Amino acid sequence: MKRVAVLYGGISAERDVSLNTGAQVIAALRGAGYEVQPVDVTADLGAVIAALDPKPDVVFNALHGRFGEDGVIQGVLDWLDIPYTHSGVRASALAMDKAASRAVFAAAGLPVAPGRVIDIADMEEGDPLPRPYVVKPLNEGSSVGVTILRRGDNHRQDIARDWAFGTQALVEQFIPGRELTVGVMGDRALTVTDIAASHEFYDYESKYAEGGSRHILPAQIHPDTHARALDLALAAHNALGCRGATRADFRYDDTAGEPGQLVLLEVNTQPGLTSTSLLPEQAAFCGIPFPALCAWMVEQAKCRV
Predict the structure, then answer these.
(1) CA 223, 225, 230: angle at the middle one, nearest 5?
(2) Were 219 and a residue from 22, 119, 192, 280 both cysteine, which residue would form a disulfide, CB within 3.0 to 4.6 Å?
(3) Is residue 81 flagged as an active site residue?
(4) What is the CATH number of domain 115-173?
C-alpha cells in the first residue's frame, strides 16, 4: 500500500481554500485504499521536512497560492527526492507568474488579452489602459486582488494606494462575454464549463461561497468554440511544461454572436478540489469519480521533472 503525505493549509492568502481541498483529498485517498498522512503546512519549513521523514511514497500537493503552487515547495520536494503530484518547479513558477505565463502563451501563438506590467504607483496619476481594464497581482491565485475598472469608476487612486501585492501589477483589457474553463488530465482536455458568477466576474467569493456561481456543464457554446477551447487548454498546458492535472481559464467574447473570440487568461497548476471546484465536476462528467481522480494524480506523481 502506498503511503501518501497530503500537504495542505500553507501560508498564502488561500490557506482556507487549501484546508478545504486537503480535507476532501484526504478522505478520497483513504477511500481509494491509500495510507494517508495529513501534513498541515505552516511557516515552519523544518517541521514540514520533519513530517516527511521517513519519506512517504508520494506527496499529494494540496496547497494553493504562494509557496504552494509557485515552485517553492516543489523545489523542496525535488531536493528531498520525493515524488509529488501536479507540475514541477519550472512550470509551477511560470504559471503562477502572470507576466511570465503571458509571454509563454504569446510565444506559442495562444490568444491573450492586450496588456502590460505597470508600477502600481503610476495608477495614482492616470489610467494605464483605456477603460474597461482589469488590474491583477502578478503572483496570486483564486482571483485574489483582481479588480475591474469601468468607465465612471472613481476608485483608481484607492487601488494604487491600498495595493498589498508588491510594487507592480498586470493590467489587461477587459474582455466582455462569458467565463469558460477547461480541465486537463495529462494529455487529455476534459470538457468546457460555462461559469455564471453571481458577481461581475468570477472572483474569490464566486469561486468558493455556496451559491457564488453556477456551472453549466457542458457549456452551451458553438461546437467550433468548444473544440478550440479544448485544443487551447491542452496547448497552454504543454507550453508551460505542466504535468498531471491543470485547468485553463478563458474569456469568451460572444457579444457579436457565435462563434466568438476566445482569450486565454491563465493556467492553474493546482486546481481546487473542494465541493464547489470545477476540475472534479468535469472529471465526474467524463466518468471519473473524485477518488479515482485523486488516485490518478498520485499514480502520476514525479519529482525532478
Answers:
(1) 100
(2) 192
(3) no
(4) 3.30.1490.20
Three cell numbers, residue 46: 523544518
Strands (DSSP E) found in the chain:
3-9, 35-41, 58-61, 115-119, 133-136, 147-149, 168-173, 178-185, 188-197, 213-216, 245-253, 261-268
Which SS3 state, helix, strand or coil, does residue 287 take? Answer: coil
Q: Which fold has domain 95-111+176-269?
A: D-amino Acid Aminotransferase; Chain A, domain 1 (3.30.470)
Q: Which pLDDT band holds residue 205 (cuts at 50, 70, 90)?
A: low
Tell me which of 18, 249, 251, 281 is the catalytic residue.
249
Q: Which CATH number among 3.40.50.20, 1.10.940.10, 3.30.70.1520, 3.30.450.40 corresponds to the domain 3-86?
A: 3.40.50.20
Decide if 84 is catalytic. no
Asked if 3 is an active-site residue, the reply is no
- Catalytic, 154? Answer no
Selecting among 247, 251, 277, 281, the annotated active-site residue is: 247
- Per the annotation, the verdict on 258 as an active-site residue is no
- Mapped onto helix, strand or coil, the DSSP state of residue 216 is strand
pLDDT single digits (tens) 106-122: 999 999 999 999 999 99
pTM of the model: 0.91
Kindly tell me if the per-residue pLDDT of 144 is higher than 80: no
